[in-house]
Amino acid sequence: MEPVRTCVGCRTRAPRSSLLRIVARDAALVIDEKAVLPGRGAWVHATDRCVSTALQRRAFGRALRVSTPLDTAALDARTTRESLQRNG
């Protein structure tokens, strides 16, 4: 039985293996590819729609329980890169 997590973007439940784990490191959002970094994590589908919805709603700050503004450059770069590869 695989663990189930909730996407902070679309708020649907999904198996952990289908989601991307995000952690806060030095006031920046970091993608945890292997899901092994220490600390609290937020889970999101690796789609432009879910990531942008989570960023607009400021869901990462709430999920990670961080009160300071977070640098979202890593997520912005990833979604832009994936969009370019798909539309390519």
From TrEMBL:
It holds the Pfam family YlxR. Transmembrane segments: none annotated. InterPro entries: YlxR, YlxR-like_sf, YlxR_dom. This is YlxR family protein. Residues 5-71 form the YlxR domain.
